[in-house]
Amino acid sequence: LSANETHGKGGSAVCLSKESLSYAYISALLAKLSLNHNSPIIDDQSIDVTVYGRKFSGVWREPQLQLQLKCTNKSGCIDKKTDEIIIDLSKKNYDDLRTFSPIPKVLVVHHAPSSQEEWIKENTNSIELMNMSYWYILGGLSDSDGGKRIRIPLSQKLDSDRLIEMLKEASNLIPLTNLVLSNVE
Amino acid sequence: MSNKKLKDKVLKHLKIMGWKNITPESAPIELWNHGENQIVLPVDSLIQHSQSIALLEAAISSIFEIDKVNLNLEFEVDRVSVQASGQNIGYGRIIYQEGLKALSGLYEIIKNNASSNINIKGKTKYVNEYMSEVHMMAPDSGSMIYKAELGLYEPQEDNDNESFQDLGSLGRVLNSRCAKLVLKAAKTFESSREFSPAELMHVGIDIKFCEAFVNLFSASSETLRFQFDWSPKEIVSDDVPTEVLFNIAHKEAAQKYVKAFKKTESLSLVEQPAIIEKYSWPQDATKGKVSFKTSLDNIDYSMTYETDEILYLRLKQEKVKKEVALSGKFLRTKNKKSKLEILSLVSIKIGPQDTLDIDEPDIDN
Description:
The complex is a heterodimer.
Chain A: H1 14-33, E1 36-38, E2 49-52, E3 64-72, E4 78-79, E5 84-89, H2 91-98, E6 105-111, E7 120-122, E8 127-129, E9 132-136, E10 148-153, H3 160-171
Parallel strand pairs in A: 3-6
Antiparallel strand pairs in A: 1-2, 2-3, 4-5, 5-10, 6-9, 7-8
Chain B: H1 3-16, E1 20-21, E2 29-34, E3 37-42, H2 52-67, E4 78-85, H3 96-117, H4 123-131, E5 134-141, E6 144-150, H5 170-189, H6 197-202, H7 207-216, E7 223-229, E8 243-247, H8 248-262, E9 264-280, E10 288-296, E11 299-307, H9 309-316, E12 323-333, E13 339-351, E14 354-357
Helix pairs in contact in B: 1-2, 3-4, 3-5, 3-7, 7-8
């Protein structure tokens, strides 16, 4: 099965399976970090997961992050020249994520192998989830007439260290910012 | 309910319960702490943001869990809470004797208010029925908070009495008058002017109120905060307060007035001989003043009576030095400078066949 296939072995649409993959990646990090989370029943605000920290030392003792999960396995989604992953957002997603909000919002884009068969490597004693998710902050970006192409530096890998750092920043009410200033086309 | 109203409701509760706002400048959220607990609210500038309703709902849920108060309930009764604060008052902990006296003080304020505002046939029955719908609530912590529910009492067998029908339930009339009396007391007690007992009684503040207030403002208290929550079941007028604050200076004034009241005696006199001494209408005043001279128990007194334009002009037809007879309630102060004051007049007899009947409300509400 490749990126061109529309349905997987089980019969469901691949686009839904990509959501599951993205969610599985985040769930694994949350489990490792003992972070609580919940998901809205209807995602009408471009939020897939709300992450809750507990007993943080900052002024906000139980900081939260809201994550919009995306997954791409399109060929050419990685720009090797600039070391960026490219994702196209709808105007709604873009506007929801860029507006100033009480709880910080983070775009999380998972880069999946083009072949669905390769999404998970099943070993004798473990499974490996391929490849990696990247994070991006759109807060404060300018308005747009239509959808937007976002280019995320590959240095913005979402791993457990970065996730916990973001929660610490939220706990101290420090606005989340990208490591490298925005690349928006 | 709008997000703004919901937030106002939450804020009101947090303030009453002693939560502290620790929000740093330009934060996107408000943080309120109480011991180990924290509540997060959206800042006013983001109150319409799609995330805000979830934050408010979470706050209400936390309040229910922590403070055991359900802010989602639309209450069907009025509520009063009195928060006593001071360095010697613990978190929901006060000297037993003081707490009991304070509770009795609040009870007396509520009951005396009902008693002095119902002046119709069957008064005792109405007061008792009203009081049976006044409930003591378990005190709250957050300093020491005494609470009562004031029912929106409607007389069940009120076939003939239409006295209160235009004003809403009798319960609401009494509850709102109680709140207005508390506000009036705050203004009176903080005034630099010293009022005579008769003047206090004219605005509804009598010795019972002052004593009850002093009991409520117990020795350990440094401030008292009255909070009135009006049920949305009935409309509440703008002049009815929701919050009234008192400090030690108010208590000291009340104690001073208790002493002043104790030197007085109330007298009901019928056709007490008196002489019209003087008429005056101060500039910009809404009432005229008529001075009388009288003698009681071989002591001469001068008294001033304030009246509306109609009675003032009628009395003014009588010459100064004219002998009249006054019937009504008087207050005699027994100290070095003995004083007799008119509390209320029922009639003024100006001739053998000529008596002016006066329909005067007992107190000014």
